[in-house]
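Model the whole thing, not chain by chain.
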Amino acid sequence: MPSHSQRLLQNILNRLLDMVPTLLALVLAFLVASILLFALGADPGTAINSMLQGAFGTENATAETLVKATPILFVAIGISIAFRGGVINIGGEGQMIAGAVAGVTTALVLKDAPAIITIPMSLVMGFISGAFYGGIAGFLRAYFGVNEILSTIMLNQVAVQLMNYLLNNPLLDPAELGTNHIPKTARILAEHQLPRLTINLPEVLVSIFGHADLFAKTRLHYGLIIAIVLAILTYILLWRTTIGYRIRAVGQNERAARYAGINVKRQMMLSLVLAGGFAGLAGVVQVLGLQYRLQTDGSPAGFTASAGFNGIVAALFGGLNPIGAIPASAFFGGLLVGAQKMQRDLGVPAALITAINGLIVVFVVSSQIFTQRRQRRRANIAVATVDMPEADEPVQPVLEEVV
Amino acid sequence: MNATQFAAPPRIQHLHMQGIVKRFPGVLAVDNVDFEVKAGEIHALLGENGAGKSTLMKILYGLYQQDEGQVLINGQPTEIRSPSDSIRQGIGMIHQHFMLVPSLTVAANVALGVKSSRGWRLDLDVVSRRLEELSLQYNLKVNPNTPVWQLAVGEQQRVEILRALYKNAALLILDEPTAVLTPQEVDDLFRVLNKMTKDGHALIFISHKLHEVLAISDRVTVLRDGRRVDTIPTEGATKLSLAEMMVGRPVVLEYKKLPLQAASDRLVLQDVSALSDRGDAGLNGVSLSVRGGEIVGLAGVSGNGQRELAEVIAGLRPATSGGILIGGIETRGKSPSVINQLGLGYIPEERMIDGAVKEFTVSENFILQDHGRQPYVRGGIFMKFRTIENACREAIKQYEIKTPGTDTPLKSLSGGNIQKLILARELSRNPKVLVAAQPTRGVDIGATEYIHQRLLAERDQGMAILLISEDLDEIMALSDRVAVMYEGRIVGVVDRDAVTVRQIGAMMAGSSLEMVE
């Protein structure tokens, strides 16, 4: 019998080995990307180096990566819940907008209230609004059998147009219109904005970074902390509570869930409500922490910068586990920020960046098959090697044919 | 036009699988097995689930490739890389789950995957004529122009056999062919099989039903844990000797049953009707009662309303009329969760679809219905994992469930152990009424016996048990009374001791009790 510590070591080793296919997939993706870069006359080595530099090379680059990662992480948390619950939410974009509109309105309406009221109220209203928007698709799916993939995609369009209308009419701040003709709301008061995030380094690390206040002069804000805390709470929700148990049961096996006495329709709706709520938070945090107002160029991704879609990929990267979504979102943020620098440095077309991102996604998601196969094999071996005490007395009768 | 549209495959005089080894990740499924079959004999392949019979036969049929060993046909080493290779060699297989397209006619199903005699134009009339010849020759009555969905299960099996004969199969592998048949249909099948061997076919008969093996086969090969135990002539073998070879231990042949101590009605169905999934009448005025301390066996050919009945009782399917009482309380229209609480335990027929969540761990599955109830929750929503694990570990010990731990995903357990876990879960909930649908289907002898003993013990403790089974032996061994279903109706309810398998078989085919007597 292996000792406890041996088993623990074995476990950690297995986890590490599980990551090998993913790393290999990344290498392969970059190899294929290199061929594309090469074909366009760019030096792949320089390109990748420029990408890494752009994503993590400087303090500011890292901060920008995390800034980009924040809304992606919020969305990814929600997507993890939805996919675990067996519903596919493609509506992150629309739900973000719904959250942002409600959040910015709340912040502007409560502009005379203290920050301790306005900021939480804005966040809560953003969550509720996104949740309601996701809930529409959830309700249609659960009670009328409307495919949620279609309804969430369609509701994205509705949200964009609604936002454009609101920004051009009731929410428009005429004072702001003059500058560049982009419709936008009034600016949120400074005290109602999410504070910038600075990390005070301990003595030992100061010499490495040269100063004690990490990220002091960057745009990084407290939204990141909120997202990480919520990721951990969501993990607890999914795997430590009856709510999560029901959501996962419905997602894995609707019929068994019904057999267990679970109200399947209600759980389906709940999954989309929560997914929408987290996307709504992504929207409101983007406003309170970064833009300080709602503005858009009117295009579908004008406000969201596609975080509602990127969050889906990040969730899959993270293995549909909210904790896993944290590094996955950071990785994705880095990809986006690094790609911008690569584009500036090498002058490659913007479309190529999208293509490279796509390649990475395809390779990494495909590599999951190998990881899963390894895990299954481990489970089989575990079952095959169980020793059970044999019954000593002969108690194995065979059914007599009875005529 | 006749069957020579195929190049007639060489007759198989002798087939020899030599030193076959097949490994799956983490499992040695077939371990150096020798198996041979000759023209004109029925060779039974006997073994428990997981003994390797299916794997061995899938290798022969080309669905798997062996890792070691070879197949010799008439002494010649032959490579079988795919089912089409094996068909070309004259090997046919009748699968346990029929491979037929329900919307197509019999002739069209047979024509599938066969080259037409008219090139790119269909030759269904030619196929039909040949099928009629064959069905006359082997007394396999089937109309070639009937759509398959209109056929009874036994008839569908005849289509499968005809299809193999049409393709000139010289060797036929029959995978648990009697599992879905009534006793009368089994007799018919056996007559056909005997005719085929007289015509020089070689037959491999896979089964775990000992009396059938004894009745039909010439030789028996017993597999256990992927290894061949022995090959013996059927003559001289007994059920006891075969069973011991299968299990590898001495076995006992009969259950001791305490005299019936039936109390008052625990489960009462009054004139219950319900729709089937297709929207027609699945249940048609069913009345039935089960008393505390008795087992009522519900016999019937699959698809005659047993599944609907179980689901209606569990609240998973709405009854369109009638009344259902559990412990005297009306449950019609109540949710599954409420019915659970009122004291119903339910072992569903499709345990991996309805009764368990494959991806969940053993302990998560153990609390499927009670995950939100005391003693498993704290603060309304937080699950008490320590408590759940302890309860689950207790059940694993008590029910001898073979699993590496409580946090193993359920899907990596064997069928018998999953069924034991479900049984443990249902019984540990102390139900007043237990509905057990096909509780031992696909379960090995050891686990089957264990499950049966548990059910009998619960009966003696006063539980009301409705045993739904297609296995008549099981019904006869456990029941105090037997109810027979046919086309959504109860044809009759009889005392177990006052009826024979033959009579029940006739009722399963729709005869009323009076007609049978």
